[in-house]
Amino acid sequence: MSSLLTKFNKEVIGSSGRIFDYLAKVSPAGDFERTRNLATILTSWNNILLTPTRSNTFDPEYGCEIYKYVFEPLDDTTIEEIKDEIMYRLMLYDDRADITNIEVGTSNDKKSLNISITVSYEGEEGEISAVIDKNTYLKLLE
User: What is the architecture, at CATH level 2, of domain 4-141?
Assistant: First the structure.
Protein backbone atom coordinates (compact mmCIF):
# COMPACT_ATOMS: atom_id res chain seq x y z
CA MET A 1 0.00 0.00 0.00
CA SER A 2 1.46 3.35 -1.02
CA SER A 3 1.75 6.26 1.35
CA LEU A 4 -0.50 9.30 1.18
CA LEU A 5 2.43 11.41 -0.04
CA THR A 6 3.11 9.00 -2.91
CA LYS A 7 -0.57 8.99 -3.84
CA PHE A 8 -0.71 12.80 -3.68
CA ASN A 9 2.41 13.14 -5.87
CA LYS A 10 1.02 10.79 -8.53
CA GLU A 11 -2.36 12.52 -8.66
CA VAL A 12 -1.14 16.11 -9.01
CA ILE A 13 -2.12 17.26 -12.50
CA GLY A 14 0.78 17.91 -14.84
CA SER A 15 3.36 16.16 -12.69
CA SER A 16 4.11 13.30 -15.05
CA GLY A 17 7.76 13.21 -16.11
CA ARG A 18 8.82 16.08 -13.87
CA ILE A 19 10.83 15.95 -10.72
CA PHE A 20 9.57 17.97 -7.81
CA ASP A 21 9.71 18.22 -4.08
CA TYR A 22 8.17 20.17 -1.25
CA LEU A 23 10.22 22.42 0.96
CA ALA A 24 9.59 22.67 4.68
CA LYS A 25 9.20 26.43 4.26
CA VAL A 26 5.53 27.35 4.58
CA SER A 27 4.18 29.89 2.09
CA PRO A 28 1.87 32.81 3.04
CA ALA A 29 -1.06 30.80 1.67
CA GLY A 30 -0.40 28.13 4.30
CA ASP A 31 0.86 25.50 1.86
CA PHE A 32 4.27 23.93 1.58
CA GLU A 33 6.38 25.50 -1.13
CA ARG A 34 6.66 23.22 -4.16
CA THR A 35 9.82 23.20 -6.25
CA ARG A 36 10.23 21.77 -9.73
CA ASN A 37 13.07 20.50 -11.88
CA LEU A 38 16.33 22.44 -11.30
CA ALA A 39 15.11 24.09 -8.09
CA THR A 40 14.46 20.64 -6.63
CA ILE A 41 17.98 19.50 -7.50
CA LEU A 42 19.54 22.66 -6.06
CA THR A 43 17.65 22.15 -2.79
CA SER A 44 18.83 18.54 -2.63
CA TRP A 45 22.44 19.52 -3.35
CA ASN A 46 22.33 22.29 -0.77
CA ASN A 47 21.24 19.73 1.84
CA ILE A 48 24.10 17.41 0.87
CA LEU A 49 26.72 20.18 1.04
CA LEU A 50 25.57 21.56 4.39
CA THR A 51 25.15 18.19 6.11
CA PRO A 52 28.40 17.02 7.69
CA THR A 53 29.02 13.29 7.41
CA ARG A 54 28.28 11.30 10.57
CA SER A 55 25.68 13.86 11.66
CA ASN A 56 22.68 11.87 10.40
CA THR A 57 21.92 9.07 12.84
CA PHE A 58 20.16 6.81 10.34
CA ASP A 59 22.62 7.35 7.47
CA PRO A 60 26.01 8.41 8.89
CA GLU A 61 27.71 8.38 5.47
CA TYR A 62 25.24 10.94 4.03
CA GLY A 63 26.56 14.45 3.61
CA CYS A 64 29.80 16.11 2.65
CA GLU A 65 33.17 16.49 4.34
CA ILE A 66 34.11 19.97 3.09
CA TYR A 67 33.82 21.26 6.65
CA LYS A 68 37.21 19.60 7.31
CA TYR A 69 38.88 22.15 5.05
CA VAL A 70 37.82 25.25 6.98
CA PHE A 71 41.10 25.41 8.92
CA GLU A 72 43.33 24.35 6.01
CA PRO A 73 45.37 26.88 4.01
CA LEU A 74 43.57 27.55 0.75
CA ASP A 75 46.27 26.62 -1.75
CA ASP A 76 45.82 24.95 -5.16
CA THR A 77 46.01 21.45 -3.69
CA THR A 78 43.34 22.15 -1.08
CA ILE A 79 41.05 23.77 -3.64
CA GLU A 80 41.32 20.66 -5.86
CA GLU A 81 40.60 18.39 -2.87
CA ILE A 82 37.50 20.46 -2.02
CA LYS A 83 36.29 20.30 -5.62
CA ASP A 84 36.86 16.54 -5.72
CA GLU A 85 34.94 16.08 -2.45
CA ILE A 86 32.02 18.16 -3.77
CA MET A 87 31.88 16.30 -7.10
CA TYR A 88 32.14 12.90 -5.41
CA ARG A 89 29.43 13.55 -2.80
CA LEU A 90 26.96 15.27 -5.12
CA MET A 91 27.25 12.57 -7.79
CA LEU A 92 27.04 9.84 -5.14
CA TYR A 93 23.77 11.05 -3.63
CA ASP A 94 22.06 12.98 -6.43
CA ASP A 95 23.38 12.72 -9.99
CA ARG A 96 20.38 14.18 -11.81
CA ALA A 97 22.19 17.31 -13.04
CA ASP A 98 25.63 18.22 -14.38
CA ILE A 99 28.17 20.36 -12.58
CA THR A 100 29.60 22.89 -15.04
CA ASN A 101 31.81 24.88 -12.65
CA ILE A 102 32.91 24.97 -9.02
CA GLU A 103 34.43 28.09 -7.45
CA VAL A 104 36.05 27.95 -4.02
CA GLY A 105 37.05 31.01 -2.03
CA THR A 106 37.20 32.35 1.49
CA SER A 107 35.45 35.14 3.32
CA ASN A 108 37.30 38.41 3.97
CA ASP A 109 38.27 37.27 7.47
CA LYS A 110 39.47 33.88 6.07
CA LYS A 111 37.30 31.99 8.58
CA SER A 112 34.85 30.40 6.18
CA LEU A 113 34.76 28.74 2.78
CA ASN A 114 32.54 30.26 0.10
CA ILE A 115 31.56 27.70 -2.49
CA SER A 116 29.68 28.45 -5.69
CA ILE A 117 28.54 25.66 -8.02
CA THR A 118 27.10 26.20 -11.50
CA VAL A 119 24.61 23.50 -12.45
CA SER A 120 23.03 22.47 -15.74
CA TYR A 121 19.84 20.41 -16.07
CA GLU A 122 17.87 19.89 -19.30
CA GLY A 123 19.13 23.14 -20.84
CA GLU A 124 18.43 25.15 -17.70
CA GLU A 125 21.31 26.63 -15.69
CA GLY A 126 21.38 27.54 -12.04
CA GLU A 127 23.75 28.26 -9.24
CA ILE A 128 24.04 27.11 -5.67
CA SER A 129 26.14 28.84 -3.04
CA ALA A 130 27.21 27.47 0.30
CA VAL A 131 29.13 28.98 3.18
CA ILE A 132 30.98 26.51 5.36
CA ASP A 133 32.39 28.05 8.52
CA LYS A 134 33.95 27.01 11.80
CA ASN A 135 30.51 26.57 13.39
CA THR A 136 29.77 23.66 11.02
CA TYR A 137 32.96 21.99 12.18
CA LEU A 138 32.54 22.75 15.88
CA LYS A 139 28.98 21.37 16.02
CA LEU A 140 30.40 17.92 15.29
CA LEU A 141 32.70 18.13 18.29
CA GLU A 142 29.86 18.72 20.77
Answer: Roll (3.10)
Q: Of 52, 87, 93, 88, which Cα lies nearest the Cα of 70?
A: 52
| pLDDT tens by residue, 7-48 | 665 665 555 555 656 665 666 666 676 666 788 888 889 889
Cα–Cα distances (Å) from 75 to 16, 20, 72, 82, 93, in that order, read 46, 38, 9, 11, 27
Q: Where are the domains of the chain?
A: 4-141
Residue 116 has pLDDT above 90, yes or no: yes
